[in-house]
Amino acid sequence: MSVPMLEFRQVDLFYGAIQALHQVSLQVQVGETVSLIGANGAGKSSLLMSIFSQPQVTSGQILYQGRDITGLQAHQVATLGIAQVPEGRRIFPDMSVEENLLMGSLVIGDTYVDEDRQRMFELFPRLRERRNQRAMTLSGGEQQMLAIARALMSRPCLLLLDEPSLGLAPLVVKQIFHTLRELAADGMTLFLVEQNASHALRLSHRGYVMVNGRISLMGTGEELLTNPQVRMAYLGGH
Amino acid sequence: MKALLMRYWPYWSGPVRDAGFAGLMALILFGPVVGVVLKGYDFELHPSRVALLVGIVILGRLLLSLALQTARGKVWLQRFELGRDQGVQVVPAHQKSLWRWVLPLIILAALILPFYANKYLLTVVILGLIYVLLGLGLNIVVGLAGLLDLGYVAFYAIGAYGLALGYEHLGLGFWTMLPLAAVLAAVAGAILGFPVLRMHGDYLAIVTLGFGEIIRLVLNNWLSFTGGPNGLSAPSPTLLGLEFGRRAKDGGTPFHEFFGLTYDPNYKFIFIYLVLLLVVLLVLYVKQRLVRMPIGRAWEALREDEIACRSMGLNHVLVKLSAFMLGASTAGLAGVFFATYQGFVNPTSFTFFESALILAIVVLGGMGSTLGVVIAAFVLTVAPELLRSFADYRVLLFGVLMVLMMIWRPRGLIRVSRRGVVPPVAQGAA
Q1: Distance to chain B for A56, nearest Cα, Å
Q2: pLDDT tops 90 at residue A111
Q3: How far is the CA of A75 from the CAs of A52, A187, B111, B313, B314, in angstroms?
Q4: For B36-51, how does the pLDDT look when each residue is reduced to its tens digit (9 = 90+)?
Q5: Are A190 and A159 in contact (CB under 8 A)?
Q6: How confident is residue B347, by pLDDT bands cut at 50, 70 and 90?
Q7: What residues form DSSP beta bridges with A162?
Q8: What is the residue range of A229's domain?
Q9: How far apart are CA A203 and CA A6, in angstroms?
Q10: Interface contact B90-A136, CB threshold 8 A
């Protein structure tokens, strides 16, 4: 098997005395869409943020394209081709939509700016309309689109998404996942952390289920969707 | 009469209540301040003066409340509420600014001014320009990068003392120290910057406050080096080695003799003014460019969301340090001009009040707004000069101004406007 895009090897993470991650191991292959589902407080976001050393893992290794990136500073990780769409979007509220996009391309310089900007506007036509508006004035869904577009502006090899459906209307969630599907079809590697299990698993090639800081289940998206345990716990039991 | 009053009571009740409350507040505020006057070890009561003031407040508040109930008043009030905190505007990319015409005129006027102004006006304007420099520098730190710095005056002091000490101990003149002081202040900014990198908001404010006090106390107490409270003299600038005094030191030719002019003490100030003006214009230009460059955007991103900023691949250490260092070096420049303009420096010029004043300039002008800072700097330095007779109430007026600003224009005099970006031409369409 080829070198995975992202790999966690027996990662432990402590917040003071509290252990948030227990011996977590997972892999994301090149070109694959993988989702990590789990309840509130299971440690999903901690796992994602630990890639950026915020917080730093206590033991274990994180590898990116075979390279050990454990303990690397957040901004250094970002320059390696990993982009993230943070939880709660975290766009720059006082900057215009356009400037938010430019912030995303800071890592790779100006070479592809015009081309990429154009691509983003095709991917999210709403952003083109609101190009010169302040990001703060966008709706939640538009802000999420902007956060995704901003992350894509750095031409990442691996896109991390933390709860992209958080606080959005069902219709907008559908739209966002549709876009993610398009991205995945174009060959982008996606690693998704979600509470919205049905949407996430339907999109993903593979999925991991996290309970109390441990990976309790793993399998293909379809397997997990039909798994009775998962159905009971995360899909409303239908 | 009574029936009339009762019939319209719904219209009166609000204003009367407002007026009563305003009167009570006025009584509490003015009662002890105006009503009790010390006389030797005794004091006198002046109830009539208090009554007059409270009466004015009550009547004014009543009339204001009533006026706001009329149709026109309501419209006015609405416009007021709407104008509140609209945040940043985005200007269309192609809009041609009026500034293209106004700016050259202002620069021309500023260049002509010293030859027609008297010495007093000139010194006031020089002071105003020094505060413009300080405001612009702090604006980078506070307005753009969002790092609340309460000890900014320390860098100003480093610039001023840099000139005085450099002259005293090393024999360096104005022109050598001008760039050197900027470098010195920038180094000090870096020294302060490193330990506070992990701090935000209140904690940062406290540490910078402490730093400002440390610098002042060192200047005040290190008698053998800085002269302590007695201060030091600072050299005047020279033009290509020509001095502006009546007689040149060390047998040189003074400026007026070299050009065959009659001696005029104003020459020195005119020269300081012109050099200062050039430096201010240069700093304005550099700042204007920086804001449009990635570093400017990085500062603003840091202010808005540090975590997002880091996940964009920005090294927050460099971003913060660059803001601190650039801000500090601007203050260093201002310090050199202050020292040479005064001809003398001592620690009383660099108290916390100065820091607060500079911060007030930034807040009053509008965080991040260049034009706003320039205007605010002149308002806050020139206005006290014009209001000399109110000198005792200066700080009070200051406070009132700040409170009013925070209520009505929380984003400062001039709202920051962002320039829209020209949409890129689609590859296929071209």
Answers
A1: 15
A2: no
A3: 8, 25, 46, 4, 5
A4: 777 778 887 878 888 8
A5: yes
A6: very high
A7: A193
A8: 1-81+187-238
A9: 19
A10: no
Give me A70's structure tokens. 């454990």
Residue A60 sits in a domain whose CATH number is 3.40.50.300
In a domain? residue A45: yes
Residue A131 lies in a domain: no
CATH class of B101-414: mainly alpha
To test the contact with chain A by mutation, choose from B304, B311, B320, B411 the residue with the greatest count of A C-beta atoms within 10 A, namely B311
Handedness of CA A123, A129, A132, A137 (dihedral sign): negative
C-alpha to C-alpha distances, B120 to B31, B126, B336, B374, nearest whole angstrom: 39, 10, 20, 21
CB contact under 8 A, A75 and B314: yes
- The answer to whether the CB of B339 falls within 8 A of the CB of B159 is yes
* Cross-chain residue pair B297–A75, CB shorter than 8 Å: no
Q: Domains in chain A: how many in total?
A: 1
| Residues 6+ positions from A227 with CB-CB distance below 8 Å | A217, A219
Under an 8 Å CB criterion, which residues of A touch B?
Answer: 52, 54, 73-75, 78-79, 83-84, 86, 90-96, 98-99, 102-104, 106-107, 114-115, 117-118, 131-134, 136, 150, 154
Residue among A54, A94, A154 whose CB faces B313 most closely? A154
Residue A144 lies in a domain: no
Residue B81 pLDDT: 60
